Amino acid sequence: MSLALAYTSIVTIKDIAVTPQLCEKVEDCLGLVGAKCVDGVCTCNQSRVCEKVVGKIATQIGESCINDDNCNIDQAACNNKTCTCKPGYIKSSDERSCLLVSARIGDSCEESVQCYTKIPFSGCQENKCVCQQHTHDFNGLCYRDVDYHRLDQ
């Protein structure tokens, strides 16, 4: 089969019609049993008909995966066969979502981890990053309060 035909043909795998998987390197063929990248198409046993590794769909950060498609969580990716949050995101307390890391006091949040990951002494209150008790905001960051009366003694 020529490469041009491979792009337009349809391969049936377990009663599911899929187009052949294009590739540049063998890593692009992850999820197919015994696949290698040959002439820009994932090939198995001298054929372009490959058995697809179905695997389970991860719905929680930290679960195992084969590729990004197995991580059914927004802003998650498969790294070292584990679903993790993409850079700039952090896992939620229930590990079922990836939350954007906040950069400054006043940024929106759902959980305190979004705030204190980059802003020490902060937390999330009423969906906004705020400084914790006995700290103050200066230029979008939190600093511990100093007791000036004790410094004079």
From TrEMBL:
It comes from the Eukaryota. Pfam families: EB. Residues 50-94, 97-142 form the EB domain. This is EB domain-containing protein.
